[in-house]
Amino acid sequence: MKFTAHVSHKILVGAVASSFALIGGSALAQSPAVTVDFAELASKPLMPAGLYSSSVLDSATDAPKTAAASTGSAVSVPAPTAKAAAVNSGSWPGAVPAGSPGPFSAMAVTVKVGSTGIGVDLATPLAHHFGLRTGASYFAYNPTLTTDGMNINGELHLQNASTSLDIYPFHNTFRISPGLTWNNATRMSATLFAPGGSEFSFGNGANSYSDPTNPVHGTANVVMGHGIAPRITMGWGNILPTHGRVSFPVEFGMQYTQKPTMKLMISGNGCGSQTEADGTVDAGCGPVDQSDVQEEQKELNNDIAPLRFYPILSLGVSFRFGHPASRGE
What we know:
It is built from 5 helices and 20 strands. By secondary structure, the protein is mostly beta strands. The strands form 3 sheets. Strands 4-5-6-8-9-14-16-20 form an 8-stranded antiparallel barrel. It starts with 9 loop residues before the first helix and ends in an 8-residue tail after the last strand.
C-alpha cells in the first residue's frame, strides 16, 4: 500500500495506524477484505470511544463536526463550547463584539462645574471601551479679604483646555482618563493696600504702621506653572451612554502644573509706633524693609507649592447626539 500524507498529519497518521494494529487487529484478521482510507482518517481528530467527546469548530461557520472514535464508529459531538459562544457574542475578553461602536460614530456634549471652573466637553467613541474627549473650562472670581493688616483685592482666573483618552477597563461606567492640559492659563493677581495709620506686618518683621503721607501698597501675582500640563483622572458615568441619551458623569484626579510662583512687590512707608488716638504716628517712618517683603514672598510661595498637583473635581450632565454605529452593521 502506498501512502502519501501532509507533513502536519504524519504524527496523527502514525497514531491511527498504531491504534488499528493494537485495538482492531482481531477484527481485521477475521475480515476477508478491509480498505482503510488513511488520508480521510488523518483529516479527523482521534478520540477514544466512551471516554470523552469534543467538537471541532469550522473557521467559517463554527458548526460542529463529527469525529471518528478509535473503534471506527462516528461519535456525535455537542454544540459549540461555552468559550466559542462567548467569542461569538463578544463577551470573551479581547473579543471585539459586532455591536461595538465605530469610531466617531456619535457625539456627546457635557456641561460640568468643578475645580477648574465651568466647562464644556465634547466626546466621541474611538473603539470598544475607548473614547476621545476634549473641552475647556473658565471661571473668574474677585475675592476681597484682609490679612496681616493688608486689604487685598484679588482676581482669580481659572482657564484651561484639555484632551483626554477615556478608557473603560471593567466593561461598566468606571473610566480612567489620561490626558493633557494644553492651555493652562489659570492665574491669580491682587492689589494690596494698608490704609494710613493701620497696623501691618511682613515676614518676620515687627508690626509697623502705614504712613498716612505715603501708605504701604503693592501687588501680588501668581503664575500656576507651565502652559502645558499632563493630567490623569478617574470617574463614573459613560459620557457616551449606549442606553438613553443622558448621563451624569463624575470626575476626579489631578494635573501636574509644576511649581507655582508668586511675585510680591511692596512700597510705601512704615512707621515704628502709634502715639495719638486720632491715628497720627511718630516721626520714626521710612520705606518698607524689602528684606521683610522677600521673607513674606518666600512664605507665600511655600504655602502655594502643593498646587503644583492641581486637583481636578467635576460634576456634569452629558447629552448624546446621534446613534453610535456598530462595527459590522
